[in-house]
Amino acid sequence: MQDIAGHIATTLRRLRQQQGWSLDQAARLTGVSKAMLGQIERSESSPTVSTLWKIASGFRVSLSELLEGADETVGLRQRDGHERVWGEDSAGMQARVLFPFDPQLGFEMFEVELAPGAESASSPHAPGVVEHIVVLEGSLALQVGEQWQHLAVGQGLRFQADQPHLMRNAGEGRLRFHDVIHYRPPVSSSNSAS
């Protein structure tokens, strides 16, 4: 089984080739520098979750496709505790793919952790993307556009993610939440790249 950094490198290179983009074009469309994209493609750099979001948004693919590929099956899927985890990155964020992007249903699901005091700023996702956040542990301060929301354990929020948003651990312990992301219209999967 390929390691996660190798998978990200291979997937990024494949996506760029499918689009026919140079590193310059990919940098312009993702907001990630040409140098960083080259380092990721050569497995010389471990990108942060925020950087992976920028890449996914620029290529109009799901985040889980970068982490482990699109899920082409519908049916019973069981979490077994061996899901791929990306992080903990320099921002104190860790993301675990619970259910990778499903092209038929148009969603993916993550479990995200933020260390005390950590925050993660996200660039706007593709038009029509909606996120659902449900706090499992800790306290989340979420800024969508200019509006702040504070969520405690058991509380959730749905918002349009095609605008800037920021997630901050507002407590003194770790913050853990589920993040379900719906793509409307569905993002391209590895089988339907243009």
From TrEMBL:
Its Gene Ontology molecular function terms? DNA binding; DNA-binding transcription factor activity
**Gene3D superfamilies noted in UniProt:** Jelly Rolls (2.60.120.10), lambda repressor-like DNA-binding domains (1.10.260.40)
**Entry-linked CDD domains:** cupin_XRE_C, HTH_XRE
Q: Which residues form the HTH cro/C1-type domain?
A: 12-66
One GO cellular component term of this record is: cytosol
Alphabetic keyword roster: DNA-binding, Transcription, Transcription regulation
Q: What is this protein called?
A: Transcriptional regulator, XRE family with cupin sensor
